[in-house]
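In this section we walk through a basic example: taking a raw amino acid sequence and producing a predicted 3D structure, encoded as C-alpha cells. The instruction is simple. Fold the sequence below.
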Amino acid sequence: QVHLVESGGGEVQPGGSLRLSCAASGMIVSMYSMAWFRQAPGKERELVATITSGGSTNYADSVKGRFTISRDSAKNMAYLQMNSLKPEDTAVYLCNVRLDWGKGTLVTVSS
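The resulting C-alpha cell sequence is shown next.
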C-alpha cells in the first residue's frame, strides 16, 4: 500500500523560500512519475510540477523559474524547492503518485 506524507510547509514572507518534502512508502519513487499539486481555498486543485521516472521535469507557468521539483532515490523522497514565494502561492500542497495522494502541507505566504 502506497503511503505519501508531505512536510515542510509553514508561513513565510513574500520573497521567501520553503522546501517541501514527500516521504513515500510502499513504492519506489524512481520507478514512477511524481507530481506536486496545490489547492488554494475556494479554488480547484492545480498541478504545480511533475518529475518523470527518467528525471524530466515540467512546471506550471505560474511557478516556472521559481520552483524546482526533485527526487532522492536513496531516501525514497521527492521535494519541491520554492523560491521567490508570492501571496498567490498560498495553498495546501499535495504529493501525488498515480492514484495515491498525501494529506498535504499548508504553505502561507503573507507579510
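Looking at the output, two observations stand out. The mean pLDDT is 96. The chain has no helices and eleven strands. In the next section we compare this with other chains.
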